[in-house]
Amino acid sequence: MKLRDKRAALALGLTLLALALPCIAWYLVGTREVRHQAAELTDNAQQAARDTAVRLAQQLSERLNRLIEAEAKRPFYHYQPYFHDPQGASEGASVVPSPLSAGSKDPLIQIYFQVDGATGRLTLPTAQAELQQYEQTQSRYARADEQLFLQRQLERGLASILFAVRGESLPQKQLAVGQRVEVLEQRAWAQNAAAQELYSNIKSRKAAPPQTLVLTNGESHVQIFVGGLKWRTVYVAGEPALVALREVTTPQGALLQGFLISATGLADYFKMAGLPAQLRAGNPVGELEAALQVAGEPWRIVVQDAAARAVAAQQVRDLRRGFLTFFLGGVAIATIAGLCVVWLVWQTDRLARQRSQFAASAAHELRTPLAGLRMYSEMLAEGLGEPARAGEYAKRIATEAARLGRVVTNVLEFTRLERGHLKVHVERGDVTGIVREAVVRQQPALAAAGMRVELALADNLPAVAFDRDAVSQIVQNLLDNAEKYTREVANRGVRVKVEAGEPVPSGAVVLSVTDNGPGLPAEMRRRLFQPFTRGHQADAPAGLGLGLALVQALARAQGAEVRYVAAAGGGAEFRVVFPA
Question: Is the alpha carbon torsion for 144, 147, 153, 155 positive or negative?
């Protein structure tokens, strides 16, 4: 490996090391911070779920307590399918359907019910005749009536509670806590006691049986003891359900009255929280559960945090994706910057090599014509050589001086090019005249070198914009380049042509210089017009490698473009296209 390659490799290694260490430290610190933030997001999501459970439990407790307070004021006879209103204006026998027969207006109440403590029979405040009709037509329509099914399941669930009230038929003399007394006249009580039969008789216009309408126990009023509503847990269809129950003591025995909380209503109520939640029996057992503050029974609110975890997981993924994007973007920018530094080091080293090569080539290019000038001038000064050839010696001195002038001119023009001081004075006109002058001026030197020049200039070409000195220097450099690379060819020749560009109506003019040398290898064509570019063959002619770079710079300064074309049959062709 060459020394310059070692320096570039060392610069690359140091740059990669300088990038790797801070990037690794950045990644480790960043990932630790991301994990910390991810844990905070997860904890916040769980804390939000816990807070939601507590808030829902508090809100639902208040809601249920308000509900039980409102329902506790309801008269006992509203739980019958039909009842006689003691406050009604009608006299005589009169019954009306229960206001609860149409269901509850509160979405949390699914059904109202009443259980006979003596028989365990559960009835709903709906028309009994309708229920019987449903029972009769159930098999015919091959469907299970939801209300009848719920009635039977609720009746089974309440069976374990009935033994406490079954058999009680006498009114209590002392009121229990939360209990109240409803007083009815004998006739009103009698009509409520036989409301179903009385409704059927009124509907069929039959006379009411007198024994069922009036009780003769020596008292004019009847006392009904109505207990307070309490929350109880019952199992309906194998699932725990929350019901509100109260015990009612009548002259005919004890009753259980209450209502069932709707699972659908609870689900709709929980939707307001924004997180899935459920009401379950029992005391809280997890972090995302909160006790429901209702007297009598342990119930709890359970928040399903799957949605919260999903939201937190998405936030964590976004956080990690954002960090990785930022990290990889930073690494990419740092890598590009580091590679730019390496490129600058390599470019600086390359330029240093080129300048060293340029200095050596310039010294060689200058020494050769100077040696010729010295030799022929000394021969003339000291009278050496053949006197008859004095004119030839003078011509050799002029040729070497012209060669020296071209070297100096190229160096000066390249210096102006690097500094950005390369300027041209463009005028429109016929470019063939200046091309002819440049070829004629250089033809003696080319002929002395054994090279034949063929000039083909078209007539009536359109006027184009060009600079006289720049075109002359372009022709001079192209001819000098052709002379250098055809020295090993037996029949040396170069063709200079000026013609109209294709297609002809385009108005462009093309200057081409074609030699019959070996041409250029493919690997050189890509960097052909770069400064200091020369052939690397051992027998390559000496030179500065500036001629073609100056040709391209001068052409572009005039608005023209130079191209390389492999000549047919071998050789190199350079075309300078002057636009219209």
Answer: negative
